[in-house]
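Technical appendix A lists one of the benchmark inputs used to test multi-chain prediction within the project. The record comprises two sequence entries:
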Amino acid sequence: MKAAGRDYRLELRKAQAGDTAALSQLISAVESRRPQLDGVLHEIYTSGGGARVVGVTGPPGSGKSSLVSALLRELRQRGETVAVVAVDPSSALTGGAILGDRLRMTEHSADSGVYVRSMSARGAMGGLSRAAVDAVAILDAAGWDTIVVETVGVGQDEVDIMRIAHTVVVVSVPGLGDDVQAMKAGLLEIADLHVVNKADREGARRTVTELRSMLRLAGARKPGAWLPPVVETVALDGSGIEDLTDELARHWNWMAAAGELEHRQLASAAERIRSIARDLLLQRMGDPTVASPFADLVRQVARRQLDPHAAAHKLISGME
Amino acid sequence: MKAAGRDYRLELRKAQAGDTAALSQLISAVESRRPQLDGVLHEIYTSGGGARVVGVTGPPGSGKSSLVSALLRELRQRGETVAVVAVDPSSALTGGAILGDRLRMTEHSADSGVYVRSMSARGAMGGLSRAAVDAVAILDAAGWDTIVVETVGVGQDEVDIMRIAHTVVVVSVPGLGDDVQAMKAGLLEIADLHVVNKADREGARRTVTELRSMLRLAGARKPGAWLPPVVETVALDGSGIEDLTDELARHWNWMAAAGELEHRQLASAAERIRSIARDLLLQRMGDPTVASPFADLVRQVARRQLDPHAAAHKLISGME
């Protein structure tokens, strides 16, 4: 069957029956934004809702990929099916991220309860956030128990992607440079759970202590509020991974008991709409050298006949 | 005078006369998106166009800030006035970036030909790209010769900001981890000039050789096309900074001779419109817990009565 003629509704049925090749086809379709998929997206979004979505983010070099692999093993032992969406904001000429995923896939290749997919800016036509958000929806609709979304957590887009997660895990590591630590600061605010990975390294105790005191400072919390725990792990030998998995379950139970799940559904829905709307807007502002209303505005701005604020207002003036 | 009553047209006049306090007021106004500024933005955008905009980007830990400081010293010696806009995508609870800028400002505090400003996601209401793009326009309108825009270069937004530069400098450094090197790959495509900083480090030769062979592979260029040079620097002792400054001038002259400047003006205008339109869209998709058409859509998506694609289409359906 030609790709152009592919029946994505059928692919969805197959994916729901456990066919990971069909799953990969669907995710490739959101990446390359196949118009035939549009009719199926409604079904995908309205049939999902059963999965737990865990976001894992942290600065480069914190060992996120190894940590996610270890978490994946532990969740499998507890009987859950697990899918991973690894979001790489670079367009990775080197293919490093892809290679890492192949290694992970190889470990679990005989296990039908594991699915790993990486998405890079290169692979995704237009918005990477949109593609990632759609991929999570597909995995949810296909019936996976836990979906892990992994990002390098450096740009605003990546922080935004975390809003579709029920639980956000922020990975720190002892002894990274100032630049990287500063980058981490933006992530602290969205963390439900902290992991200090490579906890056998020098300086690990200090990192844990600093995190705990920062969390206490942010504290003065209401009774019953969630205090993000700090878990120490060594992903490479599996230390602390059981603790991490227990804390993930504890956070889920707290959310359910505290009525927080509904709040997260709203935040997640808002982010889904935002990422898609941003992407639709970008589509309308394409190549300025191709004739379009946008190209006309660009020419006027380049000649300084119009300022870009006025141009942007003109572009979106008809918006509701 | 109260901030609410501030006359930004007067501030612009003062900034054009060399008053950096007035300049800082204007940039703060774009950061906090003061509505009184709107009337002045047209004047700002249409009166600019004289500045050379240099983008400097590279992975965390590559020593961008030190490199920019050294470049700043060299440009000053050549008689140019230089303004720096340092864009930090993290919301920097630690204030690391701000501290770095204070150090840089201290070095040049007696020199009215230098201006350094950092902008973080925390400082900028809404879109950081928009604020940075407006800040560059203000500095341009105020008559600065060279404006350096510095970013960590990790997310798509940061890559996009580079599109407002005439010349993009990508900083590499020997011996960073795979994660960081993969991140860099996305930046290679937009580089006009490569710097291998910390060139006294082990592995520097290999990094230079790898870059050069990658550039040759990308080659088979048309006669007269620009081949991005690779400059080795040690920012901390100033080695290679003269070369870098010469290469910046050579790129400018090539652009002027090859008709490339006009092309860059178009790309820059397109990016200015895009960043502002994105931001305007974000404003319309605010807090989903505050009553609005957006909040209604979010509720329907959270209840799975509507899919987010349909919701996003509804939001922007009136667009031209």
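The radius of gyration of chain A is 21 Å. Residues 29 and 35 of chain A are 9 Å apart (CA to CA). Comparable benchmark entries are summarised in Table A2.
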